[in-house]
């Protein structure tokens, strides 16, 4: 089970481009030497708080996350990895000074269906491949569903066998599926990427002619399992990653 840490940073508007640059050119490439993957950076476009920038970074587990901490993490005590990253680290040394405050939450990802493949990298191993991205201007739809625990297996089956494959055929991409370990056990969540806001809107409201037959039936069957749901949209604000 990998772990996604979603962090919101309060950064003054004039400093946000510099925050992204230091991250893209320095911090996120450094994390590839650790085996950690920053999979989505941007700003909340709808239903999220304004005035913040957001990162979504995936680690193999919490031990992996601890090892990436600059204050006492094992990677920063590894002389070989520090030598590998010596030209990258000065790029983001002023990044923290751009932030007035931050907050974070944890999402446990189901590795059977989630896209990122982080790993606790050892010196000498190949660095992690930059994660997939649709690039700046694309959209990540974060949806939180309250589904009774007895129905969650069926929710996942319908999603995995019918709904997610259809969305992928239409050009979408499942980034992650999981749950907040600090939240209620009835809550599950998805992060799904779309190439544009219009693509998300069209595919979030599938008409019968867009999702014929079994996908449409599965969509309705899954909807019947959901007690409540909430969503918000992250507008991607960086081209960091491997364009797909």
Would you summarize the structure shown here?
This protein is of the alpha+beta class and 244 residues long.
Let me know the number of strands.
10
Beta-sheet strand percentage? Answer: 25-35%
DSSP helix count? 6
**Strand order within the widest sheet?**
1-3-2-9-6-8-7-4
Cα radius of gyration in angstroms: 19 Å
List low-confidence stretches: none
Global outline: globular
Roughly what percent helix? 25-40%
N-end to C-end Cα span: 25 Å
Helix/strand order: EHEEHHEEEHEEHHEE
Overall average residue pLDDT = 95
Note the main sheet: 8 strands, antiparallel, barrel
The class by helix and strand makeup works out as alpha+beta
Give a written overview of the molecule.
With 244 residues, the protein is α+β, with helices and mostly antiparallel strands. 27% of the residues lie in helices and 30% in strands. The chain contains six helices and ten strands; from the N terminus they run E-H-E-E-H-H-E-E-E-H-E-E-H-H-E-E. An eight-stranded antiparallel barrel has the order 1-3-2-9-6-8-7-4. The chain is globular. It starts with a strand and ends with a strand.
Any chance you could write out the topology, listing elements then pairs?
Elements (H helix, E strand, L loop, with lengths): L2 E9 L4 H19 L2 E10 L5 E8 L2 H6 L11 H6 L14 E11 L22 E2 L5 E8 L5 H18 L3 E7 L7 E8 L2 H8 L9 H10 L4 E9 L5 E2 L1
Parallel strand pairs: 5-10
Antiparallel strand pairs: 1-3, 1-4, 2-3, 2-9, 4-7, 6-8, 6-9, 7-8
List keywords for this structure.
two-stranded parallel ribbon, alpha+beta, 10 strands, 244 residues
